[in-house]
Design brief:
Layout (H helix, E strand, L loop, with lengths): L1 E6 L3 H12 L1 H8 L3 E7 L13 E2 L2 H5 L4 E6 L7 H10 L3 E4 L2 H17 L4 E2 L11 H7 L5 E7 L2 H13 L3 H10 L8 H4 L2 H15 L9 E2 L7 H9 L3 E11 L2 E11 L12 E8 L3 E8 L3 H17 L23 E9 L2 H12 L3 E3 L7 E5 L3 E2 H8 L5 E7 L2
Parallel strand pairs: 1-2, 1-4, 2-3, 4-5, 5-6, 8-10, 10-17
Antiparallel strand pairs: 7-9, 7-11, 9-10, 11-12, 13-15, 13-16, 13-17, 14-15
Bound molecules: L-homoserine.
Length: about 400
């Protein structure tokens, strides 16, 4: 029998407890032996709850109990999760976590420690919630050189952009509605500013190239500047606006960024709506593959955590090799990345056309029903740097969005 303890009885932690209990029989069968919950760590009390008799407030009880062989970390945030996880690994316990902040900041170091102690540090739920993506990258796509990973990696922002598209509403209105329904956090900054997606693409890129990608190095732009008028233009183009986390290897250099993109039906990510996530991977021999599902939420995320627990139990005394070294991967400057750009200028076409042509050459004009007093167009493909240099000479630019078609 393997004893497991859960750190943090919030949404995901309570989901893990629920999944372990609901699917106990099949989980035990798949793990090859019974898995039982011994402790739950939380600062709060939960009188009358099913874990009342397992609740502890002092982490050292778990850390110092040799019977606990697997620790599930679902507290979130870097501290004290990092210290707790490190101590668990040092004491020869495997750790399964859903915590992307922790994995993005300390993944390589904790993997090295797990290897040294011959245990496992597993983090399937840290990216894409219930979608299997970490294990496929680590264990299935190993014959390929990864050329691109592009994902809709954040459910909250995908929900907001989908609602803005379906209802024609403004960002602030939809955000408030999402908060009222519990789909968006009261403090939505990490989601809407793209920080959450940034950590997730940092983790995926680190795994794809086997080196440490510092999330602070990734150019990150959120969705707070996307307006209902941008959506009208997208609709006129039969396109959609999505926020992508993306990394690409071009001529041996790796680029990574998080930013809103205008995409059309030619993208496999076009139909990924609401809270769903999807991750598109291109390998040099496999070609394209896509992973789709629920990227957030109590039970989908808990499903991935418990699958890691089963894997940890199946690999007791054996470290699962993961290529993610502490050696830093220097990302190429996004200035060199190329896209087309959708640009909105205030003022009529006649007042803007000549300057736009002078700066961008031939452009594709875009009009949208009910939008007046501005001139909008899509440039040809150009580098970020060339666009920046040209657009700073445009006194009337309202906004710009990268275009992926
Ligand atoms: N806030 C995240 C999201 C939760 O909306 O996708 C899952 O990481």
């Amino acid at each position: 029998m393997i004893h497991v303890s859960v750190l943090g009885y919030g949404t995901i932690g309570s989901g893990v407890v629920e999944v372990l209990s609901t699917n106990q029989e099949s989980i035990d069968k798949r793990a090859g032996q019974p898995i039982r919950l011994k402790y739950v760590l939380d600062l709060r009390d939960f009188p009358g709850s099913p874990i009342e008799d397992k609740l502890v407030h002092d982490y050292s009880i778990i850390a110092n109990d040799p019977e606990v062989q697997v620790v599930v970390e679902t507290m979130g945030g870097v501290h004290p999760a990092y210290e707790f996880v490190k101590e668990a690994l040092e004491k020869g316990k495997s750790v399964c976590t859903s915590n992307k902040e922790l994995v993005a900041a300390h993944g390589a170091e904790l993997l090295a420690l797990a290897k040294e102690k011959n245990v496992n540090f597993l983090f399937e739920a840290s990216v894409g919630g219930g979608i299997p993506i970490i294990r496929p990258l680590n264990q299935c796509l190993t014959a390929d050189e990864i050329e691109e990973i592009t994902g809709i990696l954040n459910g909250t922002t995908n929900y907001i952009l989908t609602k803005m598209t379906d209802e024609g509403s403004e960002f602030e209105t939809v955000l408030k509605d999402a908060q009222d329904k519990g789909y968006a956090e009261r403090n939505p900054e990490a989601d809407v500013e793209g920080y959450d997606a940034c950590r997730k693409i940092a983790i995926l890129t680190s795994l794809a190239y086997g080196m440490q990608v510092d999330y602070q190095d990734i150019y990150t732009e959120g969705i707070t500047k996307i307006t209902d008028v941008d959506i009208k233009y997208a609709k006129a183009l039969n396109a959609a606006i999505k926020i992508f986390g993306t990394s690409r290897k071009v001529d041996g250099k790796v680029y990574a960024m998080v930013a809103p993109m205008m995409i059309n039906q030619s993208s496999p990510l076009f139909s990924v709506n609401d809270v769903f996530n999807a991750i598109f991977v291109r390998g040099n021999v496999l070609g394209d593959v896509m992973f789709y599902g629920r990227g957030a939420g109590k039970l989908p995320t808990a499903s991935a955590v418990v699958a890691d627990v089963v894997d940890a139990v199946k690999h007791m005394g054996k470290n699962i090799m993961t290529i993610w070294s502490t050696k830093k991967l220097e990302l190429a400057s996004v200035d060199e990345a190329s896209h087309r750009f959708f640009v909105r200028l205030s003022g009529e076409k006649a007042a803007n056309e000549a300057l736009a042509a002078e700066l961008f050459g031939e452009v594709e004009e875009v009009t949208a029903e009910g939008v007046t007093g501005e001139y909008a167009f899509i440039t040809k493909e150009m580098t970020e740097k060339a666009f920046k240099d040209a657009s700073c000479k445009l006194p009337s630019m309202i906004s710009r969005i990268r275009v992926n078609f």
